[in-house]
Amino acid sequence: MSPCLRRLPAFLSSLLTALLGALIAAVPMAALAGVAPSLPTSMTAASPVAPGPREAANLTAELVAMNRWATPGSTAVVALRQQIAPGWHTYWRNPGDSGGPTSLNWTLPSGVTASDIIWPLPERQNLGPLLNYGYSGEVWLPVLIAIPAAAPPGRTLRIQARADLFVCSDELCIPVSLDLALDLPVAEGTAPEALPHGPRITRVLAGAPRPGPLEARLTRAGETLTLSVAGGPLAGAKAVWFYPFVQGALDHAASQPAVAGPQGLSLTLKPGRRFDPAVPLEGVLATDAGAWQIRAEPGPALAGSAGGPALRPQETATVPPASPGLILKATLFALLGGLILNLMPCVFPVLAMKAAALAGGTHAPAEARRDGLAYTLGVLVSFLALAGALLALRAGGEAIGWGFQLQVPAVTATLALVMLAVGLNLSGLYRSGSGLQALGGRVRGGGAFLTGVLAVIVAAPCTAPFMAFALGAALTLPAVAALAVFAALGIGFALPFLAVSLSPALLRRLPRPGPWMLNLQRLLALPMYATALWLAWVFSRQSALAGVGLLALAALALTVALVLWGRRQTLDPPGTDRSVPLAAPLVAALSALVLTGLAARIAPPQVEAAALDARAWSPAAVEAALAAGRPVLVNLTADWCVTCKFNEATALETAPVRAALDRTGAAYLVGDWTRRDAAIAAELERHSRSGVPLYLVHTPGRTEPELLPQLLTPAIVARALDRAAADASSAR
């Protein structure tokens, strides 16, 4: 290998490292504060729990009683009081498009029982395209406590509960667990209200939605639902809004046009992803005349529920749209993530191609600048095209994330053939604008643009540090802001190549063009073939053996087509050899296309995860392991995710991790996202991730898991498992 060729990897590595260090050093640390994924906040007091308020992130909570004492055989009222910091909120029983409801797990004296929470009417909280239901400021969530008749007067009952809730702003969401307690005296006689909270709890109970004398019907016409409600209490209502009990039954953010009628009112609703037309729709109908729980059976609209004036929404949103700060942070992290993406394993096959293309412009700064700009344009166009498709599909209700295109077998098979074609081109079997000589000469701008497209295709399965927050935030932002975040990701990805192309001093440090470029072109065919084989392996996990065989035949047909085409290109003049008619490569290429389509239609057999004694991930599998007192290590992965496979080879499937799993008795669950899986997509979204890998360690007795980094080491995994086992043991 020539000295010039040997200098390329070292130069590329030092350049990327220097640019990354300079960019990170230029970012004020204050700008990064508060944007890293938050770990669950847990405050577990010693047993028994002492009464009084408990503080957590942006929240103070306590158990308070409505009355000064409880009477034997009566029903007392105890409320979870939340004091929420400005700019933060908690959630209703149906949180809406994100978040999670508050839950209470009670520890009560013998004979004492607790009801479900009596939910006050929630606020509507807008966050970009999302709509959540929740509470802000000071909130009381009442619960009915049944006191046994045998409770002796003069005794004090220790009421304990663990409150699990989410405390969220428009930028962050923090899961919180608090152990709370209240001493409730037992005495004879009517108890007066306890000050200062008793009167407030009384008002909450008085205004809480209750079943009422209302009749409701739900009528579906295509993608439109009509909720008609009739009953005397609705007379004179001027404002209305319907809050469904089931998350996802309706499109929460959709408007609810409503009209009055002589006997009631009607609302026009939009079904959500979890809408079931065979199940009655239950929820709260809130009006300016009162709020009621209703159950709408499927059927024709009720008579007298329409024909009158339009009604206004019952209340306005209480949380502003996505803040400029969130957009700025997401854009900054996207820029950093795109820059680091150049260092991820999946992009290595393209890095040397970019460097070699630059080497061809060592003494042609103008052409190098044109190449750099064309490459950047190719990267941006590709990232924005992927982003647009992702956002459009998610807007249509699809549960997808970053790298979604490789979940489609037809796309995986096609990309495998594209990489094969690039390798054959670099091997010299035919000529096209993507060869290095072309990149250094006749079609420099077009070749650089296509190199940018190719780089994004190869990089699409990967996620890098900082990308998880950026992409997770982008999918909750308005479309224009989301596209700006993806554009920043593309700029960061293209920045090293662009910086070198615009700097004559850096260009002069590259090796001079020469015959070595042809040798490098042949050498670079090898990683292209390796990438084609990897994509074929991914396809084998998405299809059956017959599909793999058809893809192999398609690859053979494509190779024949390109070799025949290359033969015609070498003739002088081109095409004069009658032994290679033009129809021959065209027929071979068409055969490859047909075979690829047939291969993509074959479904795979159902298999379970097997490595490391793994079992297939599911929410039920997690709950079953936790119920048995076992920590749980979750690996959400995909065969097309190079970072996932790197972590599995270097961290998860190593002796230290195997020993930690045996030592802690942890369950190892693997969720395979190689093909689309709505449950995995929902789990990723719950943890603000747009793609794999995602690594979680669940601890028995805790609501939320610990999130591990996207790049693992055996020590990181082993320490997390040991912490989970120790916490579970101390909790017992």
Explain the overall architecture:
The protein is α+β, with helices and mostly antiparallel strands. It is 41% helix and 22% strand. It contains 20 helices and 26 strands. The strands form five sheets. Strands 14-15-18-17-21-16-19-20 form an eight-stranded mixed barrel. It has a five-stranded antiparallel β-sheet with strand order 2-3-4-10-7, with helices on one face. Strands 22-24-23-25-26 form a five-stranded mixed β-sheet, with helices on both faces. The model is unreliable at 1-46, 317-321, 433-444 and 607-611 (pLDDT under 50).
Write the layout of secondary structure elements.
Elements: H1 3-26, H2 29-32, E1 41-43, E2 54-56, E3 59-65, E4 75-84, E5 90-96, E6 103-107, E7 113-117, E8 123-127, E9 130-135, E10 138-146, E11 156-168, E12 173-185, H3 198-207, E13 210-211, E14 215-221, E15 224-230, E16 239-244, E17 258-260, E18 264-269, E19 281-287, E20 290-298, E21 310-313, H4 324-341, H5 348-359, H6 365-395, H7 409-426, H8 436-439, H9 444-459, H10 467-474, H11 479-501, H12 504-508, H13 516-542, H14 545-570, H15 583-600, E22 615-616, H16 619-627, E23 632-637, H17 642-652, H18 655-664, E24 667-672, H19 678-686, E25 694-698, E26 706-707, H20 714-731
Parallel strand pairs: 1-12, 13-20, 14-20, 16-21, 22-24, 23-24
Antiparallel strand pairs: 2-3, 3-4, 4-10, 5-9, 6-11, 7-10, 8-9, 11-12, 14-15, 15-18, 16-19, 17-18, 17-21, 19-20, 23-25, 25-26
